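User: I've been going back and forth on whether these two constructs are worth ordering. Before I decide, could you fold them both?

Assistant: Sure. I'll take them in the order you sent them. The first construct and its structure tokens:
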Amino acid sequence: MRYNDLTAILIAGFNGQTVIVANQATLIEDQSTEILELKSQLHTMQQQMASMLTVVQAMQAKTNNCCNDGSTSSLITPAGTTEGVKLLQNTPNPFDTHTRIDFTLPTGAYVVLEPSHVQGRPLRRLVDGQMNAGPQSIMLDGSSLAPGMYFYTVYANGELITKKMVKK
């Protein structure tokens, strides 16, 4: 048997294996970087979900007994009845195509502002994010809405305030 002939074959095989191992190491390093990025994104999402859960729990606590008398009037918060967040009547009301919704935040807060059908189905979110303290003004494009009564609700600082609006 000629071992010198086998040496060349073994060296070629060893070199081939070295290339494969190097490629695998590069792939593992890339995947490790991707895993770290995904872990960071997951952590951010978990923080956002925890924040939203706190807001939802506060809203649920405020609305648990909102309708005990059987009337929808208990859903409407008169102007000036809350210590913190103030939600004003939309202007103009009734409106034709556009209306302005004004509210005031006593402190910066995560805010959700959402108009809804009279049956309670949300139309779309006008605001969904952090806002600074002070007066706020949001325009609602209601040109695609059918004439009728609607509600708009602001959720902020653990408060839930709803008002009526009318589309001509």
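The second construct, handled the same way:
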Amino acid sequence: MEQLLNDFTSPDATKQYLQDIHRLIAGNIQYCTEMKPEDRVLPKIDASCPVCHEDLMEAGFRYQCTLSTCDFALPKQYAGHTLKVSEIQALSTHRETGVLTFTKKDSNKKYNAKLRLNDANRLELAFPAPEETQLGYCPKCRKGRVYVKNPSVCVCTECDFVVYRTIAQKALTDKRIQTLLRSGSIPVIKGFKKKDQSTFAAGLKFKDDFKLEFTRPS
């Protein structure tokens, strides 16, 4: 069929291509019509239904209960976030996940929230309080706590201290930011990028004004 597309200058190519399309569609319809329910085996995932506690399975663009009389289902994607099995397990067990990152449709901006099952067993967003995303004490004022304000920045609850979560195109994990807050520096890591996109390895530490600077490998 790909060859026929390249041969559309031939008078017979278009006719042959359409005939092949019709034959393909007819074959698919016949297959679906004749398929028995027991032939349609969908893969199960390692998570149970929070309603009836049967296994969940993949079904197209969603996860659904394996029990035919149960209508519980979850979308595979929600607000730009693809659900992991571990997050589905958290929803099944605790009815909510930890803090996740989502994307706004109108601006592609990132934001943090939890996923929660409401009383109707439908997904909804739950926005965390600052204390739920705290990473450690502020190294500047020593009074406030530093929390994740959004996927781009962490700020202090008491002063103007800020630490950005991406440095030279390298995303810093919460664990590394916690190390920075606790000790003032982190050891050498790989993956920082220059403007020309070449990569380099370096450590990070706070300067006297609590801005970050690179430390080179010894």
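Notes on the second construct follow. The helical segments are 2-6, 11-34, 85-94, 174-183. Residues 11-34 form the longest helix (24 residues).
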